[in-house]
Write a structure and sequence with these properties.
heterodimer; A: 501 residues; 14 helices; 38% helix; B: mainly alpha
């Protein structure tokens, strides 16, 4: 019996260890580690039973009071722990309260209409994301999260189309939102978008040689459509002359028209915007500038192509006509806290001139670097170089305007909104997933739709202080903690032995 | 209580009469010191790079980058040394035959179990106190946040106390010290890594497994978040094995 007890203990530990190693090694089979761990647990559970048996409790009469008493006490312990985990008091004792959620986030969590599940596609050492999600889960019983390592569970990452570590997918009642750079600001904004159950349709203008929503080639927009459907938008193609302009509750997307719009179409578009409509214009250098629509709102698309000679794009395998944009407006909701670089292949520059008619508020939201210029000559003949008459960077490549209108205040504010980018390629299948392109486009659409408008929450950091050690200080610390302190304890031990002898 | 404290005092004294306390403390401080020095050196190098490239210093947090990982590592080292501290507590009494003597004296199993636990926990308290030298050094050369640092140290002691309690149970169930140490180590490892299993499960089971993991609770304390559920968990972590050990002894010795 004694031998069996020892086998149960050592065998149980060995099986448990083997099971955990197999589970973490991602062998592809989940059943083998599960069986191994279960067998280990059974053996370990057998060990105290055998210990009690050997202790002399061999009859039911003697065992019953002991077992029942133990079970009762253990049940009380379980109940106390369940209660404690459900009704907690929590104190953030850091000096900067870095683990305390803002009042804004608490209100959003408090008003959640259903349970929300977040999946963080990251690794277990991503403390920033996991700590943040823990605070959300602690603040609301309706919020739960789990961490999925994309390397160990690639099938789950694939199912959610995850391309970057650190992406968080949040779901509620069949709707999902994704956050690629988790912070309290972006997570709470995503929650607000999830709560917004309006069905908003993105009407894509067709019939002018622009990019197609069904084209799955590199220049098409099928991936953008997929992303829009993922973010709970509906997508429809629209010909203004046939279908008219959409309702002001919906959005209009103009995907790089190559043929000028007719006067009647431009008039309809202007009326749509003046009535509080929202539109995203993606204007190609070779296409019409649509200045009849943009100019009254303080934006002009210039006839040029931006060239970026900084060489930064080359690091990412891009050429000089794919300018890198890494400078965004901190004042505009679309780009506030936006840090990812974005790439705009063959883009034209924009001018933010100030509004002419509608007293619009205009902001340049994305700019190229100082090493760029607006090339007005041909890109195919001769040498492409900056000429004195050409404008130098930074050049505006994206601008947003809003203006007051008569639209009744409801779920959205009484203003019209327009976002213009000097490029369509950055949202095409070939470039959508490159760096921050997708997020920038989605942020622009969220702002236009007033869907969980990106709120401003100050990021909290720690004490934040440099600490540089001189060589002498580093040596002294090493001697103290690695030599002197353990050495002193060892010497005390030797002295004790010596004294006893 | 006085009987329990008498046993605890005797137990603590035994540790310092034998080489056990000195050897364990030396190894523990050597590993802890090495961790501390490497983490601090890395932080210093990172600070230098931040200064050179003009990054904002608020992205650097010595508590998050040195104190918290250091204490998490120290608790892992504790997991490895505690079975060595606890393996002889009750197993040795049985093997040498002094258990019968102990239980014929006017002490209850609770006194024995509690006393043995307090004695070993006293040694863990001493080890934790010695590790406070690391934040003290940090405070001398830099700026640390005292709240989370204190929480990390208290959490280290609570984790150690919980581990000791499970070690007492393992020692109570076997007269073979090696078996007691191996079993205790297995239990502690399981309590530490059970949250890994939570990561590959869903729903309520994932929540339960995560709650049972010592690491989940200690990580929160070490970052400076004190939650009543963590305190209740650590209290249960100590109480349950001691309760079972006392019951086991009571059954064995007819008390």
């Amino acid at each position: 019996m004694k031998r069996i007890q020892h086998i149960a203990a050592i065998g149980g530990v060995a099986l448990l260890a083997a099971g955990l190693v197999l589970a973490t090694a991602a062998t592809g089979s989940e059943s083998i580690p599960r069986i191994t761990v279960t067998a280990g647990l059974v053996l370990l559970a057998l060990w105290p039973v055998l210990a009690i048996w050997r202790a002399g409790v061999k009859t039911l009469a003697t065992a019953a009071p002991m077992v029942l008493g133990s079970l009762l006490v253990l049940a009380i312990v379980v109940i106390v722990n369940v209660g404690a985990s459900r009704h907690t008091l929590r104190w953030d004792i850091t000096a900067t309260k870095r683990f305390t959620l803002s009042e804004q986030t608490r209100q959003v969590l408090h008003a959640l209409p259903g349970s929300v599940e977040a999946i963080a596609f990251t690794q277990s050492d991503d403390r920033h994301t996991i700590d943040l999600l823990k605070e959300y889960a602690a603040a609301s019983r309706g919020f739960s999260f789990r961490v999925v390592d994309p390397d160990r569970q690639p099938e789950q990452a694939q199912a959610h189309q995850i391309r970057d570590y650190g992406t968080v997918v949040i779901s509620m009642a069949g709707r999902t939102e994704r956050v690629s750079a988790p912070s309290e600001e972006t997570l709470t904004s995503a929650l607000m978008r999830l709560k917004d159950d309006r069905r908003i349709t993105v009407h894509v203008l067709t019939g002018h040689g622009g990019r197609s929503t069904v084209d799955e080639e590199k220049t098409g927009l099928s991936s953008l459509v997929e992303a829009l459907l993922h973010e709970n938008y509906d997508v429809e193609e629209r010909i203004i002359l046939r279908d008219g302009v959409p309702s002001t509750d919906d959005l209009l997307l103009v995907p790089g028209p190559m043929v000028p719009l007719l006067a009647a179409e431009l008039d309809s578009l202007n009326l749509f915007l003046a009535a509080g409509g929202r539109a995203l214009l993606l204007l190609e250098p070779e296409g019409p500038s649509l200045e009849e629509v943009t100019l009254p709102r303080g934006i002009t698309a210039r006839k040029d192509v931006i060239v970026d000679a900084s060489g930064v794009g080359r690091v990412f395998g891009m050429s000089e006509v794919v300018p890198l944009v890494a400078h965004y407006s901190d004042d505009h909701p679309i780009t506030r806290s936006f840090t990812a670089a974005s790439f705009f292949p063959l883009a034209r520059s924009l001018d933010v001139t100030g509004s002419q008619e509608d007293s619009a508020s205009v902001t340049c939201i994305a700019e190229t670097g100082t090493a760029s210029w607006a090339e007005t000559g041909s890109l195919t003949s001769g040498t492409v170089a900056w000429d004195p008459h050409e404008r130098e960077g930074p050049l505006c490549v994206g601008a947003a305007a809003s203006w007051p209108c008569d639209r009744p205040e409801g779920e959205v504010s009484s203003e019209g909104r327009l976002v213009v980018f000097g490029d369509v390629d950055f949202l095409t299948n070939a470039f959508l997933t490159v760096s921050g392109n997708r997020d920038l486009g989605m942020n622009a659409l969220s702002w236009l739709a007033e869907r969980g408008e990106l709120i401003a929450i100050r990021p909290r950091s720690g004490t934040g202080a440099y600490l540089t050690l001189s060589a002498d200080a580093a040596r002294s610390i090493f001697l103290l903690v690695v030599v002197v302190l353990p050495g002193a304890v060892l010497v005390a031990g030797i002295a004790q032995r010596w004294r006893r002898r | 209580m006085s009987k329990m404290l008498t046993i605890a005092g005797k137990e603590l004294k035994t540790y310092f009469v034998s080489p056990m306390a000195y050897v364990v403390s030396t190894v523990y401080l050597l590993i802890g010191g090495f961790f501390f020095y490497t983490m601090l050196s890395y932080f210093s190098r990172l600070s230098l790079q931040f200064m050179q490239y003009g990054y904002q210093e608020d992205q650097l947090d010595i508590n998050e980058m040195v104190v918290r990982p250091l204490y998490l590592n120290l608790s892992l080292v504790m997991l490895m040394v505690i079975p060595m501290i606890t393996m002889r507590l009750l197993a040795e009494e049985r093997r040498s035959g002094t258990a019968e003597l102990l239980f014929t004296s006017p002490v209850r199993p609770w006194h024995v179990v509690g006393g043995k636990f307090l004695g070993a926990a006293g040694l863990i308290g001493l080890l934790t106190a010695l590790t406070c030298i690391y934040p003290l050094v940090l405070a001398l050369v830099g700026e640390i946040d005292p709240g989370p640092t204190a929480a990390a140290a208290v959490g280290l002691f609570l984790t150690g106390a919980g581990f000791v309690a499970w070690g007492v149970l393992a020692s109570a169930a076997s007269e073979n010290q090696i078996v007691a140490a191996v079993t205790s180590f297995g239990f502690l490892l399981l309590l530490w890594v059970i949250s890994w299993a939570a990561a590959i499960t869903d729903g309520a089971l994932a929540s339960v497994l995560d709650y049972l993991s010592v690491m989940s609770h200690y990580e929160e304390l070490a970052k400076g978040v004190v939650d009543t559920s963590h305190l209740v968990f650590f209290a249960s972590l100590v109480f349950v094995p001691l309760f079972l050990a006392a019951h086991l002894l009571a059954a064995r010795h007819g008390r």
